[in-house]
Amino acid sequence: MTTRRVFILGGGAALGAHQVGALKFLAEQGITPDAFVASSIGVLNACVYGSGGIPRLEEAWRGFRSLPRIFSPSLWHNPILGYSLFSMDRLTGALEEYIDFPELFASPLDMEFVVLNLSRGRGEMHAKHACTDWRELRTLTRAGYAIPMLFPPVQFRGDWYVDGGFAWNIPLERAIQMRATEIYLLAPIASQLPYKGSFSSFPDFLQRFVDVMWRTIGNMGYLNALMEDGRFHGVPVTVIEPTEQWSGFGPLAVFQAYPSKNQMLMAHGYRDAKRVLAEQRRLAVERPSPARSVS
What angle do CA 71, 166, 39 make, to 5 degrees? Predict the structure, then answer.
């Protein structure tokens, strides 16, 4: 059977740099995607990868600072005259510098993006190959990372869309529908939180609750999946995510990207991918063969 590797790139804002390091290590092992399923920052990482591979991704993240692009006051895009706090123009201008949309549109690399259709009130998947041209693809990708309240919704084919990570951040089921034979899930939001036995105050309790909700919404696609022996519907799933060090929700931790932090996250992503694959190989060696298990 032909191998078909589907990479799921979940959302996590500035934590998306972790995916770059993981992608780099996987590529060094000869593990590259045949298709992407992406949401939020994963949409951008998938598009940059499709435009120039790992070198382009590293270049894009190496010097990126997010806050000057996020805090972009606008005459029209504000809570009084519009539907957001800021304009997204400054952010798209900086990010799309690394995306070649005509090349991406013509590429054989399959891509599907998660978006939240506000007009119809539902999460949706839209495929790259269903776009009529590269300009429509560009509009779709912008909808994919239009964080609601921060940025205005994006109109696509008559409906209004925002970031799909709030609806379906880790669409594990979609990879099965795309006929995956191997799934690599790169989740930038850590699923494990450090143990907390007591709370010092109401704000401390509230922060813990927010941390749990952030972790749950960010990872429910696979936290609630019925997996057996690392397989989902019989398909092997490799999960690469940050450790507890990067867990929890803090606005500056989540939305603030800057060069030294990006480099650190990429390094951690590389090490986490290396650790996960080493553990897989160790288990494969230790696992008894079918013949031995019968005896």
Answer: 85
